[in-house]
């Protein structure tokens, strides 16, 4: 079981992108709203079917993805 029980992936919903609880609301949309200054309360007012925990989990999921390792590739001799 994933620690992100509110984040779902379904090829039939938004092309399999990370969504909130199977709805057509992507994690990317939530992140974009937060990045552009919307508060949790404002997001819920605009999307009343969302819950504060959905927004928190979207942020935690993004933070988890950002922790992925970045590996430098060695230059290939020409």
What's the multimeric state?
Answer: single chain
Amino- and carboxy-terminal Cα gap: 46 Å
CATH homolog superfamily of the domain at 7-60 = Winged helix-like DNA-binding domain superfamily/Winged helix DNA-binding domain
Please give the order of strands in the largest beta sheet: 1-2
Named CATH architecture of the domain at 7-60: Orthogonal Bundle
CATH topology name of the domain at 7-60, in short, is Arc Repressor Mutant, subunit A
Proportion of strand residues: 5-15%
H/E topology pattern:
EEHHH
Sequence stretches where pLDDT stays below 50 over 5 or more residues: none
Count the helices. How many?
3
Give a verbal description of the structure.
This protein is mainly alpha-helical and about 80 residues long. It has a domain at about 5-60: Winged helix-like DNA-binding domain superfamily/Winged helix DNA-binding domain (Arc Repressor Mutant, subunit A, Orthogonal Bundle), CATH 1.10.10. It is built from three helices and two strands. The chain has helices at about 25-35, 40-45, 50-65, and strands at about 5-10, 20. A two-stranded antiparallel sheet has the order 1-2. Helix 1 (about 25-35) crosses helix 3. The chain is elongated and about 55 Å long. The termini are far apart. The mean pLDDT is about 90.
């Amino acid at each position: 079981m994933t620690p992100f029980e509110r984040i779902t992936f379904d090829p039939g919903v938004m092309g399999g992108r990370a969504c909130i609880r199977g709805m057509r609301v992507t994690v990317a949309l939530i992140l974009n709203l937060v990045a552009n200054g919307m508060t949790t309360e404002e997001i819920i007012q605009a999307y009343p079917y969302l819950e504060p925990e959905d927004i928190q989990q979207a942020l935690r999921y993004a933070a988890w993805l950002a922790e992925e390792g970045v590996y430098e590739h060695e230059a290939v001799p020409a």
